[in-house]
Amino acid sequence: MTESKDTANKSQELLDHIVDSFQIRMFWKDKDSRFIDCNQAFAEDAGFKNPDEVIGKTELDMPWAKNEAAYHLETDRTVMASGEPSLSFEQALTTSKNQKRWILTSKLPTRDSRGQVNGILVLYQDATFIKELDKERYRVNRAYQLLRNANKAIISATDEASLFDQICNFIVHHGYQMAWIGQLGKNGNKTIVPISSAGFDGHYLETIKITWADDALGHGPTETAAREGRTVVNQNFLTNPDMLPWRESAIKHGYQSSIALPLKTSTGSVFAVLTIYDAEPDAFDEDETAKLDELAQTLSFGHETLLERAKRFDVMEKSVAALAYTVESRDPYTAGHQHRVAKLALAIAQDMGLDADTCTGIQLAASIHDIGKMQVPIEILTKPTKLTTLEMNLIKVHPDVGYDILKDIPFPWPVADMVHQHHERYDGSGYPKGLQNKDINIGARIIAVADAIEAISSHRPYRPALGIDVALKEIETQRGVLYDPDAVDSCLSLFREKHFVLQ
Questions:
Q1: Over 318-386, what HEC string results?
Q2: Which pLDDT band, with edges at 50, 70 and 90, does 2 fall under?
């Protein structure tokens, strides 16, 4: 008998040793959720020296937060009431050392000899490392995806404001709390003026003073990035002493960490700063910071490209205006015709919902759509009587001439095609090629409607002005015959519903 007891004791000691050596935390509770046993790993998590000190206690005696204890008790009751296990679910746990951990928990009901539930067995393992690894992967991936979207925005942007707005919105869409871009003051003015922002702001930018001067308010991330031209990371508003001037407002708005990235010109000087906020502390690790650095460089390049594009467009616009003036200076009776057609064509294109870049191209083409008339004798252009067949044929050559003048100019839009096709008609009855329907460039279809409205409503050498009502009636009658139905509908809506004035 004694030998049998010794063997049982040794077996129990071996079992206890095995259980205590597990890194998986294990404990048992009775039906009232009081601890009846546990292994050493759990006892240490709970702040006790050994399992004996845990026995008889409840969740409310443990070091974790009250809401965590309440959740543990609730899940205990659910498992014991259903008699079904709950396996591998995530939950938060605050250890005795006040460390926030993530644990992967399984709860299994225990039963007596009659099969009745009499308690619960709980096993959990620390999943914090896996959780942090997942979080790190998520952060790097979101920065990578953000960089991809930023490249697309730079390609499609037409101006600085739309580019900056898109970038800030992309940043927030990818999980950051808030983003804003501040422009540095010029001529010795060391303020930083917000020019674009997105995300939860709650007037945060209005509550803080932002300056890149080397003073008490000039040492936050944004200010330092502006002054020193380097990326600055603030991992925690609560513990970073440099964040004291902005701490209260940032915490109030839910910002825990931030990163400031300088935007630079091609010569390396800082012209603005992109600042991003996150709702968690320590949000910007080395890999994510590297990706966001790349984002700032890409954005800087995109901004520089837009400026160069704007300069080239300005030169192009002035050149086109000079061409338009040259055409109209030969024909005083139609002076301003191309300008008015361009204005109406732009309005029609916008009303049809075409994108801003396409609208700009249509406006430009419309402003020189009659450039081919430079080769038409002035006597024919100003003739006060009906044109002969020969004279009319000379007039009909002007789309071809215009195309030849413009075809080799590297416009970013099909300007030459629009000029070439603006006398084509929807049913194929136009010239010079007899194109029809969708074979005609959308810009040319819009210019055709605008051209007809301006020509009919205005004075001509061979007749007085017929007025806008007659012009609108003409395109309405010829809707889907001579003129594109959508362009006609937008034109009619502009004049009859939106009170557009052609002048």
A1: HHHHHHHHHHHHCCHHHCCHHHHHHHHHHHHHHHCCCCHHHHHHHHHHHHCCCHHHHHCCHHHHCCCCC
A2: low
